[in-house]
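FIELD: query
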Amino acid sequence: MSTKIAIVGSGFGMYCLLPAFRTFKECQVVGICGKNSERMRNYCEKLDVKRYTDWKEMLQIEKPDAVAIAVIPKHQFEIAKYALENKIAVFAEKPLTTDTKSSLELNELAKKNKLANMIDFEFTEIPEWIEAKKEIENGLIGKIIHVNVDWTFLSYDLRNHIKSWKTDVEQGGGALSLVFSHTFYYLENILGRIKDIECKFTSSEKSLNNGDTTIDMKISFENGCTGNAHLDIADTKQHNHSLIFEGDQGTMILKNSSKDLVDNFELAVNNKETQKIKKTNSKIWKEKKIIINNELQDPRVKAIVPIAERFIKWCNSGVAAKPDFQDGLRVQELIELARISNSRLNMNK
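FIELD: result
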């Protein structure tokens, strides 16, 4: 059985989702919708993919089984809702929507119509991250007492002085929604449910829409673990994404100091019995034959492929998979808790 899928989005949708879904024999990409630009025309001609500029027209003409969406979060809700109401499965980007109410509506609609629904949280698909979670669950460093997250880089829009939705909180941008949504998901995926948040964020003058660029957060988990997280997407001096897990029997460090978002992570373990560094994911991905060829230029494609594969299997078999809209809803709840915490701290100044 082959799932017919349409793609909406001429940025990430074209360069990442399109090649990811074209990987599978069980999937047929029947069209892509986006801006009528020379870049998109050339790309679609190269890959022989039918091109549209109206997403609703594409869905009505092609009648796909599923749609993969990569648009401004403010607009994702309308497309996803229309698709679900018309019995079309949905693969969405994060954040799922711009508020809890609309995320809840999509989640309930997907369940009601028994349709595949997944959301693109990529970091937990990286081999070192998978290994870290497995070793934590196996008790390699004992019970996790504390986690420290440090993620700093200079985002594309801030570096190039671009005024876009990515720096506009109302449209689903800003560091909290755009980037820290990943952090909320991967922390709960590895360590369990978050109980409480104390959060403060600020905006750099580099953000032309005054969207938040720096997040500082204290986190309490239901299992008793505590955490500190720092995110800065306006940092001109360093690229760093690190997680330090402190257990009662050792320490585990997951770190990437390169400019690549998914490549070059290393996993270091230090406990009573072992001190070692796991090999980098570029080697592991090659062993798994998830290799970027001339068509797959963006490194993130490798991390999307496993999620896309589970989505296609869900469409074909009816067997649910993760991460799904329930996870997207949960992240949206945490985003709103963080904003409430920030507002409360600002009021108490």
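FIELD: remark
The CA atoms of residues 121 and 182 lie 6 Å apart.
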